[in-house]
Sequence to fold (754 residues):
Amino acid sequence: MLDTLHRIVHAVNKAPDLQSALDVLVRMVHEAISSDVCSIYLVDDASRANVLMATVGLAPKAVGRVRLPMGRGLVGLVAERAEPVNLADATAHPRYIRIDDTGEARFRGFLGVPIIKNRRVLGVLVVRQVETREFQDEEVTFLFTLAAQLAGAISYARASGELDSLTGGEAPIQRFLSGQAGFAGVAIGSAVVTYRQSDLQSVPDRRIDDPERECRRFQRAVAQVGEDLRRLQARLGGELPVEDQALFDALLLMLESETLLLQTEETIHSGLWAPAALRETIASHARIFDEMDDPYLRERASDVRDLGRRILMHLEHDQPREIDYPAQTVLVGEDISAMQMAEVPPERLAAVVSASGSSSSHAAILARAMGIPAVMGVSEMPVSRMQGRTLVVDGYRGRVYVDPTPAVLAEYQRLLREERALGEEVEAMRGLPSETTDGHLVPLYLNTGLVSETQEESLAEAAGVGLYRTELPFMVRDRFPGEESQVANYRRVLEAFAPRPVTLRTLDVGGDKELPYFPVQEQNPFLGWRGVRISLQHPEIFLTQVRAMLRADIGLGNLHIMLPMITQVGEVDELQLLIQRAHDELLEEGHAVSMPRVGVMIEVPSAVYQAAELARRVDFISIGSNDLTQYLLAVDRNNPRVADLYDELHPAVLRALKMVVDAAREFHRPVSLCGEMAGNPLATALLVGLGIDSLSMSVGSLLRVKWVVRSISRMHARQLLTVAMRMEDAAQVRRLMESSLDELGLGGLIRPGK
Ligand code: PEP
Ligand code: MG
Fold:
């Protein structure tokens, strides 16, 4: 059954549009469980009805015509209960209604399962049989599992409006794709899909205006793959067994087959660029093999895909020109990386929408640093179909509107105007001290390291650098950077901010930050080998980095070193010895280095409970609320499926922060917070109330947070904290903080148009 299930889901996902997907679905389910009927009904919100969308076994003319008002009939019962209904004789059930149009009067057995996404019933999948008997347990679970897997595709069709046009809903309600709010802001622009090189499945659609030229490009690529294969075959010829040699012949035959060439060229002539045309051809060929029952023939699907990848690689080498980024580019991708964002000219990048990731992924952090709206984890978005579509990106609420209706567009244009006005008010904060209304200073520092250049104005604005993530220079190379290149890199930051403090964090790779040349394969990377755990087992990497930091600081004296992912006091002791050793050796070598201040990050629960022991050992403490929230709540910070549960305003997080601040106080150590929470205006009053000494955040958040700091008194902040600490869940705290910002007239910082 599992195999059949995979084949159905695969075929459905590959269908070019929703109607074909539903047709394939009912046909394949009908065959798989040998029922007499298989139908699918989808909910049409506009007319509040369950509409028959596709069927095998009922009269085809009934499709689109049978519209059961909500709550009516057995389909209505399944939707209402949101659970399967399995009946030996449907006609005997009080909710049964006979619909003459469909020819269903002769069927007795009925099984309906709901299609549910995010607790909402989107439709009902129904199988019927002439016989009077209940469906078997395996059949129920089969349909149930299938329905769960289909919910995503249907949910996208609803969001994009495709469903409205199919169900004939008269007044389409503009829906949106949901994700997680990245950086608060609104943007309207055109989608440019970015994809990983040589990944055929994620190639986006792009329109071209010279199909002849594109066809020639495609033919060249095919010819080159042919040459590659022949060369490989000749080279390996003598060593390969006959069956494997036959594989080369089969691949060559496939490559030069008329269907592959003609089908692709035909699609190119319809105006699509060669990579997308190739994607379509390969998908349809592979699908034929995928659907075969013979396991050997099914395996051939991967040969077809391999061929596709090879042609794509040649097409990519023969790219006609650089991507034309429109003035308002909304960068869209399956899993947007900081690197892909850096490829877009910054003045053209209006927003970022990523199908995976969450608000604390590094792409979202970079978006905040650049001050552009981002929506992350939009898992229902069909990325390859987004190229060139007009998008409205609402980074406040985590929404994306695809091809918005004029009404939505007008509303967001209004919000954009208001946002611009708000931007001017925010700008007015520039140059003013970050102090509460009662004169208490809360210095605001910068988080940097993800962007190579920091703009001049933000340099002047920040009290220093509270977190410099040193991973990036390590990530963009093909080997570990040497001491000299690290010295140059750190010197640049230290000098730019001197005499203000700059906190360089030692290498924090592992988790979601992988070095291409130092792969770590783990089942559970966030609980694995990351941060200082790597440093302790590879002291040579750590020592090189620390030496570079100390040398970069010569003559400046503003270096602070910060150790990430500390879970045991022993780690701090050992690393401090290594820092001392690097210092002493450098002195011996004649470098006039001095000992920097050394601090630790508190970002795992054990460090919270041992904050006093840690504080006693170091010069300062910095709370990494991103990881702390992840580990306290057991919610992967990058997983959109559990993103709703990730909330730094959770009372447990607030209590942990309080414990850390109390411990730091006991030893008179300064405590700062450098996770994304520091840049969240909703959290500012709580952090001030807790007595956190300084906050370190992305540059885009600096003036907004300063605005909040300048609008509150310490007393008010403490009162809010007391109320929040008595609350039992994050939603309550969130509401409290939202209304407090509204009262201060700062609601616009978290919601558009306030
Ligand atoms: C954190 O965990 O809060 C933090 C600042 O570090 P990073 O986001 O780089 O893990
Ligand atoms: Mg961290």
Residues 211-236 form the longest helix (26 residues). The chain has a mean pLDDT of 88. Residues 200-316 form a domain with the Enzyme I; Chain A, domain 2 fold (CATH 1.10.274.10).
